[in-house]
Design goal:
alpha/beta, Rossmann fold, six-stranded mixed β-sheet, 15 helices, binds pyridoxal-5'-phosphate
């Protein structure tokens, strides 16, 4: 037996002065963008792969397959390569060339492009590839207990790190974004295991991908007719049953912001903290501005309150995309005055100054 390989890492918990100033409380960023695959998905998907290998014996010939052209596909390939196994990804024709190149660059055996939609690519994987290839292992993106268990490891890290810099290890709230709800379910399980199931959680989505919010409003698990947000990593039309169940707990709140707000979160984070993340992650940063956090949590915040934002990361971002969003959505900076004591309020193009 070889020594245990690390499929994910302990990430830093960084207190952001600029975001704290904007939000009116202490903002701690859990830097999941620094995971090996560029997002928190390394935790859950990495754990899924390790668990599978332990349960089935490390069979030669095992080949992992994901049907995500996004961060789940990247996480699958990165974890498989770390563990010494091949991985391939099946994606629809609409997947961006940049993401295909990134998935190939981290060592995918193959990136197979087929079908007009994710459903078609996923069906081809399940019904053709995995039927023909008995050594093929399907890797789900968010709806599996091993994935939640992997994601839950973020909670004891946060608590231990908070206890090193503050007088308590318990955050006053945790903010995370929701696609299919895998990350959210993992956080709930992590808090349960740590004996503090009542820590408030803000579950954030973008408008047009708000499958959790719509289910909560309907009072039942529903499927959105489609996705109408550029934050494609949040684009699950239906959240998992487990995520829906957890979201009905009284300490969980759901919030929805639009793509412009998510984009603002991305460019402000880039200017204030020199970190590049995709829209699915920027939407969490947006809560720090314009009183959004107090409104979403439904309570006044003090400068002593400690709020952890899970900076989930994501690879679907470039310098040009950031600049493009800042031009496209410039109006949002005019609509909303932000204190000029926050560095990013001074860096807008075209000299918008507040
Ligand atoms: C996958 C992903 C999400 C959503 O995670 P779920 O577990 O599907 O809810 C959020 N942000 C980023 C960057 C992601 O890659």
């Amino acid at each position: 037996m070889s020594s245990e390989k690390k499929v994910f890492v302990e990430t830093p918990l960084h207190e952001s002065a600029a975001l704290s100033k904007a939000a009116g409380c202490r903002i701690f960023l859990k830097l999941e963008n620094l995971q090996p695959s560029g997002s928190f998905k390394s935790r859950g998907i990495g754990h899924y792969l390790s668990t599978h290998l332990k349960a089935n014996g490390s069979t030669t010939g095992t080949h992992f397959y994901s049907s995500s052209g996004g961060n789940a596909g990247l996480a699958c390939v990165v974890a498989a390569r770390t563990l010494g196994y091949p991985a391939s990804v099946v994606v629809p024709l609409s997947t961006k060339p940049m993401m295909i190149t990134k998935i190939k660059a981290v060592g995918a055996t193959e990136v197979i492009q087929i079908g007009a939609s994710w459903q078609e690519a996923d069906s081809y994987l399940r019904e053709v590839i995995l039927v023909e290839n008995k050594n093929g292992v399907y890797v789900p993106p968010f709806d599996h207990p091993a994935i939640w268990a992997g994601h839950s490891t973020i909670v004891p890290e946060i608590m231990e790190q908070l206890s090193r810099v503050t007088s308590a290890n318990r955050p006053d709230a945790i903010v995370c974004s929701v696609g299919g709800g895998g990350l959210f379910a993992g956080i709930v399980q992590g808090l349960d295991a740590a004996g503090c199931p009542d820590v408030p959680i803000l579950a954030v989505e973008t408008a047009g991908a708000e499958s959790l919010n719509a289910a909560l409003k309907a009072g039942e698990l529903i499927t959105l007719p489609g996705i109408n947000s550029q934050a494609t990593s949040l684009g699950a039309v239906r959240v998992s049953e487990r995520a829906f169940e957890y979201a009905q707990r009284s300490n969980v709140r759901s919030a929805v912001y639009n793509d412009a707000e998510a984009a603002m979160g991305c460019w402000r984070l880039a200017d204030d903290e020199r970190l590049m993340v995709e829209l699915a992650c920027g939407v969490n940063v947006a809560v720090c501005y314009g009183g959004r956090l107090e409104k979403a949590l439904g309570k006044k915040l003090t400068t002593e309150d400690k709020v952890v934002i899970v900076l989930c990361g994501g690879s679907n971002v470039t310098v040009d995309m950031l600049a493009g969003w800042r031009k496209e959505y410039a109006y949002i900076e005019k609509e909303q005055a932000v204190s000029n004591e926050i560095p990013s309020s001074l860096t807008a193009p075209n000299g918008h100054r507040h």
